[in-house]
Predict the structure.
Amino acid sequence: MSLAELIRDLILKWNHNARIDERLLKMQENIANNIYEEANSGKLFLLRMPSGKGKTEIFVSPFLYQFKKNEFFAGRMFIIEPVHALLIQMRERIKKYVQGLDIPVGEDHGEVESPTYLYTAPITLTTIDSFAYGFLAKRIMKWTEYNYETGRYILPVGIIANSYIVFDEAHLIQDSVFLSPRVMGKIICNLVNSGSIVVFSSATLPNKILDRLTSECKNKVVELGENTIREVKYEFREGKELSSNEIECKGNTIIIVNTISKARKIYYELKEKCKGYNVKILHSLVIKKDKEKVYNEIKNNLDNTILIGTQTLEVGLDFDFRVLYTELSPLDSLLQRLGRIGRKSSDSIAYIYDVSNSAPYLNILVEKTRNTINKGDINLDNVYDDETIHKIETNGDALYVQFLEYVDNLHLLSYPPEEDVSVRPSTYITIYLVDNTKEDEIIKVKKEDIDSVKYSISLIDNYSVKRLRDLINAHGNYYYIYINEDKEGIYLKKKENLNISFIMNNFSIFLIKNKVYDDAGLKIIDSERNRDGRK
């Protein structure tokens, strides 16, 4: 079997009704062959192509081709997603790809019940945080023997370094202070300089962010694909904000806004306005089983679907919508949103609406994007220039210095440093949602009656804590904490008044589900805040 035949097979396994574009297939084969032929020493392959051009088949096929030819360059493959929402579709996709090949596919990240610590399956889906903290010996299997805790010094670096590592949607390795590009740049270049094979796959990776990711291994970067932006018809309605009144009730429509509270508002208004349509919502604070349910409900019913969401919808949705309504956001984010339409149809259109408040994005990035659109020069480097990035980075310098100090004290086969280390300027707690109508001091719940969402806590400002406080106050100014468990269930104890230090030390809280969660996800209220890139 040739690489072209393998890629054709992967396309049809994922979508048996797909029409094969022979010209595109030839390009995919050439790029995949470049990876396969050159994946014999430390390399960082940069795969930059527009949305809908088959990047997934390109980066998966070289690894699977080994099994066809029985000539191996890597024993394992890690596919690293920047957000949990992307794992749902990628898991389904990869499992279809490996049908008939007897290659196990595993997952290791914060939402799995049984962590594998990157040790098990030949193909492992994970997140940036889980991958990075595995490398940094902060997410390591440990056990107790002879009254001593051990295991943490066994870094999975040996496994990682000898694997084929793919960073999907690599442009999302960024944050409000550009800590992640600097941290991950150090980790990635350490691996590449040690002989690892790494792929960055992205449709919108700005050059200056790429510089942060590759500054210490530039001589080992191999450019692949076409660094172009797919043209989509759009209208920018400057000075006008998006509301449900602006949205026409038509199927095959996607609406992407900047905050969860705005998404929730539009969702409920459109459910009332657009009766007879399949109105759905997705965002980061929707529980996993509901996300999967929405995904399964819309994938075969796009013609009658109106999908509302936040940044969660920017990547990983392998659907071709016809109409997009979106709020203005930083240019790389906006281009990803535009990538949700016009993959196959020529009559697609996007309506871009202005915002009076840039949150959760930085004002400087939104303002530069507004200027860029007005000038008609859609170039990422107009927004992400050195001066702008340097200005933003200064707010994260303390966390980056902390990371560098940690790495200096991290040594193979030694017990890792006790100091904290951050991959991004935030951490998270798990909000567990329990089906229980009681408000007793101690309650018992069954494990199967517990759902959860990951809630991000900023290390830069206190906005996320305030938002959590508002949620708990609306809940009744109390929450529950874990005490213990037995065969009958988990026992929880009631606590009143928010103690964020206590919650952060325990990394979790338990809330009564019907008080804080409905069919639009967690009942979050986003108050106004200013984001200007300064402390």
